[in-house]
Amino acid sequence: MEVMMLRHPHNYKKEEFEPMALALGFFDGVHKGHQQVMLSAKKTAEEKGWKSAVMTFDPHPSVVLGRKHRHIRHITPLEEKKRLIQEMGIDYLFIVRFTSDFAALEPQQFVDQFIIGLNARHVTAGFDYTYGRLGKGTMDTLMFHSRGEFTYTAVQKLAIDQEKVSSTKIRELLSEGLVRDASDLLGRPYRLHGTIIHGDKRGRKIGFPTANIEPADDYFLPMTGVYAVKIRVQDEWHEGVCNVGYRPTFKSPDEPVLSIEVHIFHYSGDIYGEEVEVDWFIRLRGEQKFNGIEELTAQIERDKQAAVQFFDSKRLDGKS
Ligand SMILES: Cc1cc2nc3c(=O)[nH]c(=O)nc-3n(C[C@H](O)[C@H](O)[C@H](O)COP(=O)(O)O)c2cc1C
Ligand SMILES: Nc1ncnc2c1ncn2[C@@H]1O[C@H](COP(=O)(O)OP(=O)(O)O)[C@@H](O)[C@H]1O
């Protein structure tokens, strides 16, 4: 997949691109609904003998439009999004810098410069996609703005169990610790990339070494608590238990520092500095303040058994 960063104004000429079927959207999560939109573009590209492309934006439009918090946490920060879109077999990924100038483009200007101007012959987006200044362009105005230069598909809302699949819903589920439900909407377990950093060196002493993870990006983290996870270290996946939280047994609540740490089953070896991936499977319990190390380690032992049991039963289900 070729990744192209685009700014407004850009100097590309239409002739520099092969004809494309282009999927448009912010796509945070690359969830099942997003996947439908992208696969629809890919299918059109295959049918017509064109290239498939995805156009997304960075940063999130609400950062520039000032509607929400300045700092947004993502289900799939840009690098994660790139990886997932690449895995879908898309030929081109356009990442458009979402600036005030870009946001001020009239819908027709956006279409002229970023759709027709890139030689897109077909556009696919969710039915509620908007474009151009104040989001005035909608899937109903696209026909008019297309100037007959491309066709388009508006992909209908995807619902699972009568619930719309959306980034907002996935955030809601993650913030309640419901990582299993989130993975139903994502079509894969929720994943986080990060680097192993040093912690307080207490883990090994208490019999449960824990690899402390610094997230590679501003991920939307699941609710604090203890989870059964899989962690990829040096190209191999291992099962483990993860605590995400503030470690109230040892730390004062006055200076809360969030830590993410995984005790990896059947593993030994130093992995500081390694890049890892963590897949979240199920929340086992909330974080607690224990009266001392003995109580904590007894509980971690039970967490471990619960996680082992969870993965064993998953294997029996044949879902692993
Ligand atoms: C499965 C698991 C569950 C944990 N649960 C708690 C908890 O409920 N409360 C708490 O204060 N710390 C909890 N911890 C964090 C431990 O306090 C932490 O791993 C230990 O202090 C070692 O920290 P270090 O890696 O920085 O040395 C948990 C850790 C693991 C691996
Ligand atoms: N089974 C294991 N699970 C997690 N980390 C392990 C394991 N075995 C060895 N390690 C190593 O030990 C470190 C964790 O030990 P710990 O005493 O908790 O130190 P720290 O406080 O620096 O995390 C990990 O970063 C990793 O390098």
From TrEMBL:
Q: What is its EC number?
A: 2.7.1.26, 2.7.7.2
Annotated membrane-spanning segments are none
SUPFAM superfamilies documented for this protein: Nucleotidylyl transferase, Riboflavin kinase-like
| The protein's enzyme class | transferase
Name of this chain's protein: Riboflavin biosynthesis protein
According to its UniProt record, which protein family does this protein belong to?
Belongs to the ribF family.
Where do the coiled-coil regions begin and end? Answer: none
Tell me what organism the protein belongs to: Domibacillus enclensis
Which segments constitute the Riboflavin kinase domain?
185-312
One Gene Ontology MF term: riboflavin kinase activity
Q: Report which superkingdom the organism of origin falls in.
A: Bacteria
Give the pathway listed in the UniProt entry for this protein: Cofactor biosynthesis; FMN biosynthesis; FMN from riboflavin (ATP route): step 1/1; Cofactor biosynthesis; FAD biosynthesis; FAD from FMN: step 1/1
